[in-house]
Inverse folding.
């Protein structure tokens, strides 16, 4: 149990989100990603802050067996692949995804700006029991399951 | 257990966040607030989307006995009261608050824009077991504990 009463980090204004850097591990870090649960003492949920340039996206599918997620898009235009569907997203789209759904995303090549979003995840347990070595994530390489665009 | 695989709602672009309306109940609804867990089938966490005009803020204190919260500010300038401290916040401030901390917030009277933020909350249980009739929230009226500004 954490002893902090509150704790602050700074992700910068939306205009600067393409400049930050971080991930779940040094190996998974890249420009335009911050994993706030690596910076703040979350116990029960996790939050990532994301920016992707036009045409750029994730290069693997993943799903979660225990975590539900919210993708809250704030700026730009993009697409999410959800199992066999492709859904357009843009600033204002709030997309809840349940357990077991395979997902990928990209910023559309024609997007006027980078695609910027927050992803929140939680399950019915402490986050530490659902991530890292105890991860509930299932990853599928694009060589096994082609991306939908 | 929900059967939806994914579900979408639209909160509009950041520029429009002052125009939406909603709350935990009709009585608690006001302009500049959307409770996404009333619109999407969240099981384990909840998310509110908020906009307050310069000088406007909450008029009561509250704390949570079981939920932790993240306040992620996206635009504008404001202040949060956290027990006996007052912390400045602005677009980019990510503020994690632990259980038991009394909190209030306002958009600064001098803020160049409305204060806009997302609040995420979760505990170690289903959200339905921590809200509504089972709420872990403790509210204190400003007549009992004066606001810090």
């Amino acid at each position: 149990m954490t002893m902090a009463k509150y704790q602050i980090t700074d992700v910068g204004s939306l205009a600067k989100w393409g400049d930050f850097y971080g991930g779940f591990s040094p190996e998974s870090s890249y420009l335009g990603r911050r994993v706030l649960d690596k910076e703040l003492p979350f116990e029960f949920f996790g939050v990532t802050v994301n920016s992707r340039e036009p045409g750029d996206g994730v290069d693997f599918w993943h799903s979660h067996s225990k975590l539900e997620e919210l993708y809250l898009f704030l700026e730009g235009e993009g697409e999410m692949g959800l199992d066999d569907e492709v859904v357009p997203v843009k600033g204002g789209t709030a997309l809840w995804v349940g357990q077991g759904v395979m997902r990928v995303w990209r910023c559309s090549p024609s997007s006027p700006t980078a695609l910027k979003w927050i992803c929140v995840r939680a399950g019915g347990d402490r986050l530490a029991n659902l991530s890292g070595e105890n991860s509930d994530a299932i990853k599928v390489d694009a060589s096994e399951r082609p991306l939908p665009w």
